[in-house]
Design a protein that fits this description.
The protein has 435 residues and is an alpha/beta fold. The chain has 18 helices and eight strands. Helix 14 links the parallel strand 5 and strand 6.
Length: 435
């Protein structure tokens, strides 16, 4: 083989046929020429020969077009070197894309693998279309989930599809899951979905058992510091576990009620109040609100009776519309409590939420004062009083005028630091009380 026209680097690459070789070169530097010459050189006697025939050569390319070009060049080179018989075998050589090589291996062993030897390779566009069709088949044409099953809570939280490209939906999550599986060796079988979640009733029992272990230490710590636990928040049960006492699914709704029963039993031991805020859940559409309110009434009537047996109060918190989308004002909560004769349920007012939802905060306090049993006292920015624009001193005076003698709680952000926030709240409230 005449290599006189090759550059020193090309010649060195062509003649290196023993051991690994890495060639890194820019566009137009003759990489394809070097590769085809190296394949031909490995078949010539002067190389040893390094390969006993073209069927011992494996060359992988990025595209089918590139594979065809290499084959054509190898054939021309072999003919020029008088190896016409070997040139005839090039079309059947292992020179292809990675997909082509894998398909060839699978086809050769198709019957052993239980495959149809006539199978085809699906391209990216075809795959995307097939996945989209499969997702459409699961979701239905009218965005109604065909089989909700154990994923009902997911479908209640997210729409089947979204018109916004970046907005989460069941379809987008399925697409992401399929894309992830496509990159794994075992496909969907390789995905680890983790252990099945524990039943909420089991978690409730475990919660009580966990507190049994720490309860004596907690009680001692409270006594030693002349403190008492005034309330137990429950919102994480909704945020972290999706438990809501208005859930359309009866099993999950019962689990949410059981979780609150556990909190009420614990509150009875600690003489604390139980807060219900986020656990009322959200409604997907305005049309669903009446049914959600009916479910809420059934749940709350039962929990109100449970609270009475435990000797504790429940306080229902009006939360702003951006976090919970119904029962957002004090008037709405008060009306709900009175309509269902919930004698052991009162209102928790949160001045941060009031600043968003109440058109007249003072008037709302006065109108609902009989039901107010707990107060989250923070400024308009959720900092300690005085850091925002709410008339905190005026709210305190109004509460005193209405005869409120319950807890003022520092439900504030730990800013600028936890210590500074706590000190700022205590100093501000103490000053207001002294006035």
């Amino acid at each position: 083989m005449n290599l006189s026209t090759c550059t020193p680097g090309q010649r060195q690459s062509i003649e290196h046929v023993s051991g690994p070789l890495l060639v890194s070169a820019g566009a137009g530097s003759g990489k394809t020429f070097t590769l085809t010459q190296r394949i031909a050189y490995a078949l010539l006697p002067e190389s040893g020969p390094a390969a006993g025939g073209i069927d011992e050569v494996l060359a992988i390319t990025f595209t089918e077009k590139a594979a065809a070009e290499i084959k054509a060049r190898v054939k021309r080179t072999l003919r020029a070197e008088g190896m016409c018989e070997e040139a005839l075998k090039v079309d059947a050589a292992w020179i292809s894309t990675i997909h082509g090589m894998c398909a060839r291996i699978l086809r050769a062993h198709a019957l052993d693998l239980g495959l149809d030897p006539a199978f085809g390779i699906m391209g990216d566009a075809e795959r995307a279309e097939a996945v989209a069709d499969a997702i459409d088949g699961a979701l239905g044409d009218d965005n109604d989930i065909i089989a909700r099953g154990s994923y009902a809570a997911l479908f209640d939280e997210y729409p089947a599809r979204s018109t916004m490209p970046l907005a989460p939906s069941v379809a987008s999550m399925l697409q992401a899951l399929m894309d992830k599986a496509a990159g794994l060796r075992g496909g969907l079988d390789a995905l680890d979905f983790g252990p099945s979640p524990a039943q909420a009733s089991t978690l409730a029992r475990e919660l009580l058992l966990a507190y049994e272990g720490v309860l004596p230490a907690l009680e001692r710590a409270l006594a030693e510091n002349s403190m008492r636990l005034t309330a137990i928040g429950t919102g994480r049960a909704y945020v972290n576990h999706g438990l809501s006492i208005t859930d359309p699914d009866e099993t999950r709704r019962r689990a949410a009620v059981q979780r609150l029963e556990a909190f009420l039993e614990l509150a009875g031991r600690l003489h604390a109040t139980v807060i219900i805020g986020c656990m009322r859940g959200n409604v997907a559409t305005a049309e669903e609100l009446p049914a959600a309110l009916d479910r809420l009434a059934v749940s709350m009537e039962y929990l109100d009776q449970t609270a009475a047996k435990a000797g504790v109060d429940i306080v229902f918190e009006p939360i702003n519309r951006y976090e919970n989308n119904f029962l957002c004002t004090m008037e709405e909560i008060s009306h709900f409590i009175r309509s269902h004769s919930l004698t052991n349920t009162g209102i928790l007012i949160d001045t941060f939420h009031m600043n968003i939802e109440e058109s007249d905060m003072m008037a709302s306090i006065e109108a609902c004062s009989p039901e107010i049993r707990y107060v989250h006292f923070s400024d308009s920015n959720r900092w300690y009083p005085g850091a925002g624009h709410t008339d905190m001193a005026g709210i305190l005076r109004k509460l005193q005028e209405c005869g409120y003698q319950g807890v003022l709680s520092a439900d504030i952000l730990p800013k600028p630091t936890k210590e500074a926030a706590a000190r700022g709240w205590i100093e501000a409230v103490s000053a207001m009380i002294r006035e």
